From TrEMBL:
<dbReference type="Pfam" id="PF00412">
    <property type="entry name" value="LIM"/>
</dbReference>
<protein>
    <submittedName>
        <fullName>Muscle LIM protein 1-like</fullName>
    </submittedName>
</protein>
<keyword id="KW-0479">Metal-binding</keyword>
<feature type="domain" description="LIM zinc-binding">
    <location>
        <begin position="9"/>
        <end position="69"/>
    </location>
</feature>
<keyword id="KW-0862">Zinc</keyword>
<keyword id="KW-0539">Nucleus</keyword>
<dbReference type="InterPro" id="IPR001781">
    <property type="entry name" value="Znf_LIM"/>
</dbReference>
<keyword id="KW-0677">Repeat</keyword>
<keyword id="KW-0440">LIM domain</keyword>
Amino acid sequence: MPFKPVEQPKCPKCSKSVYAAEEMLAAGQKWHKNCFKCGLCHKSLDSTNATEHGGELYCKQCYGRKFGPKGYGFGQGAGTLSMDTGAHLGNTATAMSNKPTDPNYG
């Protein structure tokens, strides 16, 4: 019976094999050290500051900016309401409008 090599796990960022000497573990997957970077600011990450969303890695600061709560009391200053939709961070899921949704207010 011929020798069958062990299949190495693939890095979710570059799709190349990840070997034990270079692996970083996050979101149940193995990453290369060079691929283990924030998807927004490209800062190198480690296990203490890495968060994952939709298969992409983020540092905690960028994750909070992109996916965290918006509005009063969330780092915008006292008495302010953020109208930031996160478009500059690639967020296209938020649709904001100042038009009333009640049909009685045409």
